[in-house]
Amino acid sequence: MPVSAFDHGLLYGDGVFEGIRFQEKGLLLLDEHVQRLYDSARMIQLRIAQNPDEMRRMVIEAVRHCGMENGYVRLVVTRGVGDLGVNPASCGTPTVMILVSTISLYPEKFYEEGLRVHVCQTKKPPLDVLPCNAKTCNYLNNGLAALEFTKEGCQEGLMLTTEGFVSEATADNVFGIQGNALFTPSLDTNCLPGITRAKVMELAKEKGFQVREGKYLPDEFREADEVFLTGTGAGIIAVTTLGGQRIGNGKTGKTTRALRDAYESKCRQWLTFVDAHERKLVR
Ligand SMILES: Cc1ncc(COP(=O)(O)O)c(C=O)c1O
Q: Where are the CATH 3.30.470.10 domain residues in the chain?
């Protein structure tokens, strides 16, 4: 179905979205993604016509009929069609789009070598400027930061708050490891409340790590034993160079590797299989 050029999602980036991974026809952490979609919508006063259960079913149907075993669902809900003015009040029913595509993961060698990560000049806007802690269609800020790290020959970039604290990467959350403790920017740095972030925090606590959330400077990450990123697409991936400086011994560290293995094996428990009759592991 065509999308109108008068849709405010297109004209003004007015909308919310989710990216959901599926493997062997099982959607990873589906309920958490649907929940965050509605949380994001509430934060921008967008009333989605469907209820969360209907949305969940629509996503399942899309994957059931796509003919792919593994891939990525992009679920987008925009403000809908309005006039050319910026005011969302002119918009009618929100537009729902469900795109099923392949997922572009980092090549395997980066899971061994880790990523080169740049510290970007492009800052995260404060919460009273843009609610970046909602997953909105307004990713220009992240896109500009991505142009910066690409120019520097890096694979990702850390974005800082206007006060200079680390918030997150352009499409992933960030963690540091110091001894037996993990640390990660708190949500008041305006980072996205990552679903992988939350699961990794749970997993690390189960494994006996202390987990701290707070405001950290880039130097605190540079001096950490290990640094890694988390996200739906990447899973857990090490950062081995930050702002031109080597982290630890410059290779994926043993704690990052152990957390990644633990996370990847837990993922199987977090799948909603689209064909409930053929599979036992349905939630
Ligand atoms: C800006 C940003 N931060 C963090 C993440 C990681 O979030 P999640 O683990 O829910 O995929 C994403 C990706 O969704 C993102 O776009």
A: 8-101
